[in-house]
């Protein structure tokens, strides 16, 4: 039946009066504008599914007939959805009919969700435990595992957030006690070389006092310990989650479930003449996909360069405004903040582009099944998203201020604009601000839009529906139709959002110790936000069976390894930890075993600044005109005063930094391996339970075999 362009097919979960494969509508209801078809499948479909999958493989025959096992509503919906999405004899699919306008939509009806609304999908239940079994019974195992993982991740963030907060507060406790900050604040006779081309003054070092104190909040000795702690935390989190998952799937009787067998069974149920589609691999297609993926990664890196260009031009523009309230410190802050906002906009735009490209790359590989396609898409999309989110952070952490040359001979963009430099206290402050803004916007603005958009869309459709006559018999179906549509990416997008957050929480945590605390608060909101969306604002997701979180586990393990590498490099190359330690034990008053009454870092600031003579500035430069009585200025680098070449100390520090990275990574990775070995993936109770079940099955077969022999 066809009626204009407004046709819906909500899928029911009960009834058994339709042909096995020809699922014609049992219920047809029509109002003034729309026609609703209620589709229900024949019970023989579920009997066949029960025969193929529910009965244990190789089970011994029984003298008594087996009692029929009821098929859960989630399984019934999944089977009907699979058949509707399969190609018909004419070669089309139901989804293509929707695209052609023959039908408007199809979806399973929300039915029996009242308990979830009361126990789970409410803001007041934010601190309560989630009803995972009830979520599984309504939305299926895949959704339930997502919320089980998210709940466990949130629970494990508590110790990480407390330790990160403690590290941050320890910096506060020494806000005015740092020897380096004291020297900077008292250095009124040391003048800094101008940063920008338009700066016409030599500022005293003491002007950067506040900035230096703020930098010390998250660039201190506790940073190293916290980075190692987070490497251990990430390993323990994953290992304990594996144990938790094993308990859950054993409780759900899915420990031995096979995804490929499930998909083949559904294909055979839909078409008894189904021919198995074997795995295929093409080196040509793989080469094309690899080449296009590398091209997209280069584009993501190019986006980081766009941000570099913006920051350079913004610095020049803000410096040229000559506003009285916009000093050099304010210009630097404005450039960093606006740069972070630009980065966030780039992330929002490129996320849509990355999803489209990842889907096209998956189609090129021609995956065998939907599950295989989803796994390949996950890897590609996450890779592109990783470079989109973290390329600018990598630039700030490891490149910013390191290719600038020196005063009088600076590196310039297009031969005109001088590249921006790190602050005198290092690039940790820039990295902290960039992470705080991007992560803050991702966890606040994105979450607000994630909730407000479907809420407003649903309210608008409900208001529009009230203007028209409503058939009381169709009230439930119309209510479901007015909810927001869902796609195969609805749950995928939630997973991806959490993976990116997990990356922020671990990869650059050495520069942002408050990241776990921010993630903790965000997740408490995220759990209820997702619950409200799924139960109250969206159509019911088609339940999917699963016994783990799939490829996302490999993504988490990859992030854990990247976190060790990145944090080691941040401590070595971005923070001042290594230069301070080298000065303390080699150049300072406590060097070579001396016991000085002075602080061991006394004189570090003067030692870490190179000298530039103002007479060597180009005569036409603004700095030369502004030099006046200043004969020398200082800048942050390790160069000789006579020829401005890199000094011996620079190469000593570089060697120590590289050695530290190697040592840190090996120590952290060894700790991860020991923790992974110490915490088994599967609890002994689960192993023993599975072992007992196998033993009892063998005993039953032995008894049956003995009886058959006697007869």
Main attributes of the structure:
10 strands; single chain; four-stranded mixed beta sheet; 711 residues; two-stranded antiparallel sheet; mainly alpha
What does this structure look like?
The protein is mainly alpha-helical and 711 residues long. The two termini are 60 Å apart. The strands form four sheets. It has a four-stranded mixed beta sheet. It folds into two domains: 7-109, no CATH class; 132-175 and 217-575, no CATH class. The chain has helices at 43-54, 73-85, 94-99, 114-119, 132-139, 141-173, 179-186, 209-216, 221-251, 259-270, 283-321, 328-365, 370-398, 428-443, 445-466, 475-482, 490-506, 515-537, 551-574, 577-587, 604-608, 622-626, 648-678, 684-710; strands at residues 7-11, 27-30, 35-38, 105-108, 405-406, 409-410, 412-413, 417-418, 609-613, 632-636. β7 (412-413) and β8 (417-418) form a beta hairpin. The model is unreliable at 1-8, 11-23 and 55-66 (pLDDT under 50). The chain is elongated and about 100 Å long. It is built from 24 helices and ten strands. α17 runs antiparallel to α18.
> Could you tell me the radius of gyration in angstroms?
32 Å
Q: If strands are numbered along the chain, what order do they take across the biggest sheet?
A: 2-3-1-4
Report how far apart the termini are: 60 Å
Number of domains: 2
- Which overall shape is indicated by the principal axes computed on the Cα atoms? elongated
Uncertain stretches of 5 or more adjacent residues: 1-8, 11-23, 55-66
